[in-house]
Write a structure and sequence with these properties.
Blueprint: H1 25-28, E1 38-41, H2 48-58, E2 66-71, H3 74-85, H4 87-100, H5 103-110, H6 119-132, H7 161-171, E3 175-178, E4 193-196, H8 219-235, E5 238-244, H9 247-252, E6 257-264, E7 276-283
Parallel strand pairs: 1-2, 1-4, 2-3, 4-5
Antiparallel strand pairs: 5-7, 6-7
Helix pairs in contact: 3-6, 3-7, 4-6
């Protein structure tokens, strides 16, 4: 494991991520429970909520004992594991990517088979593509191959050394696993705080985006997630979930406390469809600000 230099910088997401919660933290954070035993995110994504909770704990404004970050995206999970365990080598690999970045190089790296790469090379590839692809999208085809075209950036900021060292320090001692959200039932127990940020239900029949992994996340998966939410509620877990403000989602969680939040829609092919949209924040407890 690589030693991580001490740093006082506040940890923050180092990846671009559609649906990342950085912009909504000011609306979400006031509703975090005051104290809990363990913390988990079964849909980790950019991990914005964990970075924030870590900062609160550093300021003695939150108390929890351990953390489990999980996601079904194998490349994302590997990336976080490498940032935690070997950030110095990762930075060397990213420096090479930054030096060689141009169109042909991008498509050469995109075409690589991840099975042929070491974990640190996979992580460097993942971050490089994330910071240079179109809009920071993560999309794969049915074969699981990343297929987003290169973005139009003059000088893409592929990585920030200080931010990666900060992230590595923040991830020390954190359990990071590739896992389906259903596997949470094998881990969760009374007193845990679990934040769910699943692929959102589409706002319209043509708005669905489920290519985060080769396996879609559709209405059946939304129903299964709601069933798991109810089971974890029965166990005595503290639960928070984000999703689209749609009749279907509101019906699935009608037994719980639902708040309407306003978010900026950043990714849309049509500029006039970008703007403020409603999201729902579902809790099974009464927050201090409710």
């Amino acid at each position: 494991m690589t030693a991580v230099p001490p740093t006082s910088i506040t940890p923050k997401p180092f990846l671009k991520w559609a649906g990342g919660k950085t912009q909504l933290l000011s609306q979400i954070a006031p509703h975090f429970p005051a104290a809990f035993n363990r913390y988990s995110e079964p849909f980790t994504g950019s991990a914005a909520v964990y970075w924030h909770l870590y900062s609160l704990r550093e300021q003695d404004r939150a108390q929890f004992t351990s953390v489990r970050l999980a996601d079904s995206n194998a490349e994302l999970v590997n990336c976080y594991q490498v940032v935690r365990d070997d950030v110095a080598t990762l930075i060397k690999k990213l420096t090479k990517h930054r030096q060689q970045h141009q169109k042909d190089y991008y498509y050469h790296i995109r075409a690589q088979q991840v099975a042929d790469l070491s974990p640190v090379d996979r992580a460097a590839r993942f971050i490089y593509l994330n910071k240079t692809c179109y809009n920071g999208l993560y999309r794969v085809n049915r074969a699981g191959q990343f297929n987003v075209p290169m973005g139009r950036y003059q000088n893409p900021a592929i990585f920030d050394t200080t931010a990666l060292h900060s992230a590595s320090r923040t991830l020390q001692g954190v359990e990071i696993v590739q896992a389906d959200f259903r596997e949470l039932l094998d881990w969760a127990q009374c007193g845990d705080f679990i934040y769910f940020d699943p692929p959102y239900a589409p706002l319209s029949p043509t708005a669905s985006f489920t290519s985060y992994t080769p396996h879609p996340f559709g209405q059946r998966e939304q129903q299964e997630l709601a069933d798991i939410y109810r089971e974890l509620n029965r166990r005595g877990c503290l639960l928070m979930l984000s999703n689209s403000w749609t009749p279907t989602i509101l019906d699935l969680y009608s037994d719980f406390h639902c708040l309407e939040l306003k978010a900026s829609r950043a990714i849309n092919s049509k500029a006039d469809n970008r703007g403020r949209v409603s999201e729902v924040l579902v809790m099974n407890y009464q927050s201090l600000c409710s």
